[in-house]
Amino acid sequence: MVIKPRLKGGLALTNHPIGAKEFVKRQIDYVKSQDKYKGPKKVLIIGSSSGYGLATRISLAFGAGAETIGVAFEKGIEGKRTGSAGWWNTIAFDEAAEKEGLKYKNFIGDAFSFEMKDDVIKFIKEEFGGKIDLLIYSLASGVRTDPIDGVTYRSALKSTTKEITGPTINFEKETMEETTMGVATPEEIKSTIKVMGGEDWKLWIEALDKGGVLSEGFKTVAYSYLGPKVTYGIYKEGTIGAAKRDLEHTSDVLNDFLKEKYNGEAYVSLSKALMTKASAVIPIFPLYAALLYKVMKEKGIHEGTIQQKHRLLTQMVYGNHPVIDDERRLRPDNWEMREDVQAEVEALWDKITPENFKEISDYAGAREEFMQLNGFDFDNVDYDADLDLEELAKLRP
Ligand code: NAD
Ligand code: NA
C-alpha cells in the first residue's frame, strides 16, 4: 500500500512508518552530534511516543546512555488504518536503541489507570534493577478516567474569561481562518484540570513510592506551557492554563515530599511552543507558532523539539545552568519569551491577513514540522513506495 497524507483540520488521519523512522533518526543524529552528558541511569517517561516526551527519551538514551521505560497510548495497523504516529516512532526508537545496546521497555496503554502503574512498578522491581532515578511526565490527552471514582472526564479547549475570536492556520486547506473559542462552564474547567492537571502525576509518584522503586536523589519533571501575551486568552487564561497551574501547584507538593524522603526534586518545565499532535489542535496556536518560528529563525535561536529538550536536560536538569523563575519553574522557554522576540511577533500579528500569512510567517516551516510529525515531507523518504502492511503489522513497540 502507498500511504499518502490525509488531513482533517489539525489532525492527521494517516501516518508513514518509514517517515517515522526518519523523524526519529534525525533526532538521534542531533543528540549524537552533541557531547555526551552525565544524566540518570534509569528513567520512566509517561507520554514517551511523540512530541516532547519522545525527544526527552532520545536525549536521555542516546546522550546519557539511560535505560528507558516508555508509557504511551498508541495504536498499530487496523484494517485500513495505518497506525498512529507514536506507534511508529516507538518502533523506530526501539530499533535504534537495540542497535546501540540501550535497554528499553514500552507499555502501550492508559497511563491514567492503576493497572498501568502496577504493571510498570512490577517491571521495575523484577526486570529493571529495582529503582528509577527520573520520571518525566509528558502526557497530553483529551480524556481521563479517574481510577478512584471511575468517572471519565473530558478536557475542553476553552476560554475562562470571554469568548475569543482570532486567526489560526488550517493545515488541511492551507488557509488562515478565524476561530472562535467559547467560554468554559465551571464544569468544563474542572474536567480539564482533572485531565491535564497534576492529579495523575501525583498518583504516579505515590504508587512508585509505595512500591519502593524510587532511588535516593530521584527527580521528576512535568512539562507545561505558559506562553506570551498574544496567546494569554487561549492558553494562560484558558481551561488548559488552569490545568497547567494545577500541575505547577502539584510540583511544589511533590517537591516537599521527595526532598524530605529521598533528597529528591520535582519541577515543572515551561517549554517552547512547537508543533505537536497536541498543540496543532489548539485554536490560534499554529499561527502563533508560525510567526514565532519566523522571528526565532531570523535571530538564529529557533529550536525544534529535540534541541529544546536536550538543552533542558544538559543545561538545567543535569547541568549547572538552570533558568528558574521566582515560582520555581524551569524556563527553557526563555528564548521564546525574550522581549525582542515577542515585540516582533506582536508586530507581525498586527499585520497578518489571510492573503499574506504565508509570506509574513514561517508557514512553510510550521507546515513541514506538522507533516513530519506524521512521517511525511522528508526529502529522503520514498513516498511512492508500496509498503507491505502485513509485514509492518507484525511489528510491535
Ligand atoms: P504529544 O501529543 O506529542 O504527546 C503526548 C503523549 O502522551 C504521547 O506519547 C501519547 O501517546 C501520550 N498519551 C496520551 N494519552 C495517554 C494515556 N491515556 N496513556 C498513556 N499515554 C498517553 O504532545 P506534546 O506536545 O509533546 O505534549 C507533551 C507535554 O508537553 C504536554 O504536557 C504539553 O502541554 C507540554 N508542552 C507542549 C508544548 C507544545 O508547544 N507542543 C509546549 C510546552 C509544553
Ligand atoms: Na510527549
Automatic annotation (TrEMBL):
Binding sites annotated in the UniProt record for NAD(+): 47-52, 73-74, 110-111, 139-140, 244, 274-276
Pathway(s) it belongs to: Lipid metabolism; fatty acid biosynthesis
MF annotations from Gene Ontology: enoyl-[acyl-carrier-protein] reductase (NADH) activity; NAD binding; trans-2-enoyl-CoA reductase (NADH) activity
GO biological process, one term: fatty acid biosynthetic process
Residues of the Enoyl reductase FAD binding domain: 324-386
Organism domain of life: Bacteria
Domain Trans-2-enoyl-CoA reductase catalytic, chain residue ranges per copy: 81-318
Positions of the record's site feature: Plays an important role in discriminating NADH against NADPH: 74
InterPro entries per the UniProt record, alphabetical: Eno_Rdtase_FAD-bd_dom, Enoyl-CoA_Rdtase_cat_dom, FabV-like_NADH_b, NAD(P)-bd_dom_sf, Trans-2-enoyl-CoA_reductase
Active-site residue list: 235
Entry EC number(s): 1.3.1.9
Entries under Pfam families matching the protein: Eno-Rase_FAD_bd (PF07055), Eno-Rase_NADH_b (PF12242), Enoyl_reductase (PF12241)
Key words, A-Z: Fatty acid biosynthesis, Fatty acid metabolism, Lipid biosynthesis, Lipid metabolism, NAD, Oxidoreductase
Residues where substrate binds: 225
Xref: Gene3D superfamilies: NAD(P)-binding Rossmann-like Domain
Domain Trans-2-enoyl-CoA reductase-like NAD(P)H binding: 2-77
Subunit architecture: Monomer.
Role noted for this protein: Involved in the final reduction of the elongation cycle of fatty acid synthesis (FAS II). Catalyzes the reduction of a carbon-carbon double bond in an enoyl moiety that is covalently linked to an acyl carrier protein (ACP).
Identification of the protein by name: Enoyl-[acyl-carrier-protein] reductase [NADH]
Gene symbol of the encoding locus: fabV
